[in-house]
Design brief:
Aminopeptidase
Length: about 210
């Protein structure tokens, strides 16, 4: 069974930040780096991530990771998930996944991401998200992408708001996170919203910000 259009894909933004931001497919050999980052960032990530007993933050072996990679690779072959590693400064810095892809008349998906706390606030995730969305709209052929974010997660909300996602309201008790069912805000963006691309728009915004500071 072959992979669908636009996958696997490695994407690079080489010059916007001090170091290149790279998106590349998640692979088995990332296991040790994934576990190290996840355990070190357990408290940082716990309040925001859906509860999933198959991939706990604290673990004594790599079984959950290997299971996740197998599942995501299978879903990537079916064209319903695009699982990327976010690499910055030449190391594993987080994940970005476009999943729950529906084809047919919908051509929609949902995006989720997490970042090592050491790389937070540097512009890594907005850059990675802009690259991923441009790829999804222009190469893969999706039309709409959603992001559901807890109202309290102001940092993640700023990421999607900077890139032009629209706030479509609260979904009550829609995901189980950190031990309870939590409300989430649904943000969405469509192919019509991005014009010639989100990454060019994001580059212009970053450079304009630097010019104001300078």
């Amino acid at each position: 069974m072959s992979f669908p259009r636009g996958w696997p894909a490695t994407l690079t933004e080489p010059s916007l930040l001090p170091q290149p931001v790279i998106l590349r497919p998640l692979v088995t050999r990332d296991a040790a780096a994934w576990r190290s980052v996840r355990v070190r960032n357990a408290d940082w990530l716990r309040p925001w991530e859906p509860t999933n007993p198959e991939t706990p933050l604290y673990q004594s072996n790599l079984g959950p990771y290997l299971s996740m990679v197998r599942t995501m690779r299978h879903e990537a072959r079916r064209g319903v998930t695009l699982p990327w590693v976010v690499s910055y400064c030449g190391r594993f810095a987080g994940q970005l996944t476009v999943g729950n892809i529906i084809w047919g008349s919908a051509r929609t998906g949902s995006v989720g991401y997490w970042i090592d706390q050491e790389c937070a606030g540097l512009g890594v995730i907005p850059t990675a998200l802009a690259m991923a969305l441009d790829h999804c709209f222009f190469a893969v052929g999706l039309h709409r992408i959603e992001a559901t974010i807890r109202p309290e997660n102001h940092a993640s909300r700023r990421v999607v708001e900077k890139l032009g996602f629209h706030d479509e309201g609260v979904r009550r008790r829609c995901l189980h996170v950190d031990g309870a069912w939590r409300d989430h805000i649904c943000y969405a963006i469509t192919a019509e919203d991005v014009g010639p691309g989100l990454l060019p728009r994001w580059r212009s915004a970053v450079r304009a910000g630097r010019a104001r500071i300078g």
